[in-house]
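Weekly sync, protein design subgroup
Attendees: M.S., D.O., the rotation student, P.L. (late)

Item 1: inverse folding check
M.S. brought a backbone from last month's batch and wanted to see whether the design step gives back something sensible before we order anything. D.O. pointed out we never logged the input encoding, so this time it goes straight into the notes. Structure tokens as presented (200 positions):
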């Protein structure tokens, strides 16, 4: 089984990404379950604005799209900015919109029989809102969202340290990350055994 983690941090490599640090807990838990995981820091690639799979010259989204099609499990990892998903996460969802009209060999939407989850970080609250926005978009595209397919870390009300600056709350975030990985794998395996059939 294969998984793809799209890290939607605003920080280009090699800057430390708090979002990636938490996503790595999910990656480790998936790897322990023999899942092959690929991680892409989207901001390191030229992903042009648009809602098609290929926006033409210079667009690096098509290669990421191929990784999406190769993975049964998708994780969108995003920081919280102004109480919302990052602009990179929004762009990813906009580009994934094209998948709604793409079908497989038996005319099913290509996102069917794939599962997705969300990782959120932020030094202020708003994580549940971000999870609901990203999960809702992924469900629209056709992904199956298992129960508790998310984890997050935030500082709580008001400004404060970032994830990498403190150990506060890590135990809970890591525990939910491991549960998230287990639930993603369980539902992905169930869908592999009994796929969603083509529509009428």
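Designed sequence read out in the meeting:
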């Amino acid at each position: 089984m294969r998984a793809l983690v799209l890290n939607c941090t605003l920080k280009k490599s090699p800057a430390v990404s708090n979002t990636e640090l938490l996503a790595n807990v999910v990656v480790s838990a998936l790897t322990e379950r023999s899942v092959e995981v690929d991680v892409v820091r989207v901001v390191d690639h030229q992903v042009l604005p648009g809602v098609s799979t290929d926006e033409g010259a210079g667009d690096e989204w098509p290669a990421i799209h191929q990784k999406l099609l190769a993975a049964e499990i998708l994780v969108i990892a995003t920081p919280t900015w102004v109480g919302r998903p990052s602009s990179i996460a929004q762009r990813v969802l906009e580009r994934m919109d094209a998948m709604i009209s793409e079908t497989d060999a038996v005319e099913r939407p290509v996102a069917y029989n794939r599962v997705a989850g969300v990782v959120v970080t932020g030094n202020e609250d708003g994580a549940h809102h971000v999870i609901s926005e990203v999960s809702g978009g992924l469900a629209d595209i056709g992904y199956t969202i298992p129960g508790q397919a998310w984890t997050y870390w935030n500082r709580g009300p008001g400004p404060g340290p970032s994830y990498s600056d403190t150990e506060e709350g890590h135990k809970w975030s890591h525990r939910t990350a491991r549960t998230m990985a287990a639930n993603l794998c369980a539902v992905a395996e169930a869908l592999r055994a009994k796929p969603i059939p083509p529509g009428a």
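Discussion: The CA atoms of residues 107 and 168 lie 48 Å apart. The chain has five helices and six strands.
Action: P.L. to compare against the previous round before Friday.
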